[in-house]
Amino acid sequence: MSYSVLHVVHLLAAIFFIGTLFFEVMILGRIRQQIGEQTMPLVERAVGARSRVVLHWVVLFVYGAGIGLAWYHRQALADPFASSFATQLTLKIVLAIGVFFTFGLVAILLRKGLMTPARYRALHWAILLQMIGIVLLAKGMFYLHW
């Protein structure tokens, strides 16, 4: 697959992933007072169930394309401190691994019935913040040279 196709797939999947988390954290997380305490758990469960189905595919595309793109930059990754590009790409990959494990923790806690609303919000905030870091690094890789 060409670099350009991988790049577009990666960017679109990242937009979908970040957009979903942004919606959950910044919009859905703030409407509790308007909807009420009885209705909100139903809304959260329904949105969570649907987003998990969609996000599984989105995660597959974002990470699959990301691995393909990393393969194109394997020479830079061989020496992660040789250039600002390589360092930022390495940090981006480390954050992406962090997102993957945090996302996995959400799934484990949900399956075991250990997820609380507070944990859910905290973990979604953590994922969103890591993803914002990834976006900033992605932009900086091509424009920020130390």
UniProtKB/TrEMBL annotation:
<keyword id="KW-1133">Transmembrane helix</keyword>
<protein>
    <recommendedName>
        <fullName>Integral membrane protein</fullName>
    </recommendedName>
</protein>
<feature type="transmembrane region" description="Helical">
    <location>
        <begin position="53"/>
        <end position="73"/>
    </location>
</feature>
<feature type="transmembrane region" description="Helical">
    <location>
        <begin position="122"/>
        <end position="144"/>
    </location>
</feature>
<dbReference type="InterPro" id="IPR007418">
    <property type="entry name" value="DUF474"/>
</dbReference>
<feature type="transmembrane region" description="Helical">
    <location>
        <begin position="93"/>
        <end position="110"/>
    </location>
</feature>
<keyword id="KW-0812">Transmembrane</keyword>
<feature type="transmembrane region" description="Helical">
    <location>
        <begin position="6"/>
        <end position="32"/>
    </location>
</feature>
<keyword id="KW-0472">Membrane</keyword>
